[in-house]
Specification:
It contains 3 helices and 6 strands. By secondary structure, the chain is of the alpha+beta class. The chain has a 6-stranded mixed β-sheet with strand order 2-1-6-5-4-3. A hairpin with a 2-residue loop joins β5 and β6. The protein starts with a helix and ends with a helix.
Length: 140
């Protein structure tokens, strides 16, 4: 039997929440939900801003270089979690310590389009000044 729209929203929201819980605990990340062909768009003027075609391009060009600049892991804290149709919207803060010993803190809004419990498209907003400073200051 097919899920109702409300059941699907509840399911998608729970999937994303679990992925953020795993990220915070160091046992997984929301990026594991990306399909191989998912697109990820970073909006704004960050050095990483553009649309990445495919999970591997995004992981290679953004996630891995970002993590390589950290001395530990980034810890997310969800402020709000919404659903609208097949989209899960996550407003969260994230903080960690860069390899140079300085803190990295940012606030993010991610719009995650879900299909069959996986992310097929994402649009991300955050403070590009904070990211650019971190990206240029710390080498991977």
């Amino acid at each position: 039997m097919a899920q109702s729209a409300d059941e699907l929203k509840t399911r998608n929201k729970a999937i994303v929440r679990r992925s953020f819980d795993a990220w915070r605990e160091g046992t997984g990340t929301p990026f594991e939900l990306l399909t191989e062909s998912a697109t990820w768009t970073i909006v704004g003027r960050a050095v990483t801003a553009k649309t990445y075609q495919g999970r591997e391009a995004f992981m290679r060009d953004v996630v891995r270089p970002f993590n390589a600049r950290m001395s530990g892991t980034l810890k997310p804290a969800i402020r709000k979690l919404y659903t609208d149709g097949d989209t899960v919207i996550v407003l969260f803060d994230a903080s960690g310590t860069a390899r140079d010993g300085k803190p990295y803190q940012n606030t993010y809004a991610w719009f995650l389009d879900m299909q069959d419990g996986r992310i097929v498209n994402a649009v991300a907003f955050f403070d590009s000044i904070a990211l650019n400073d971190y990206w240029q200051r710390v080498t991977p």
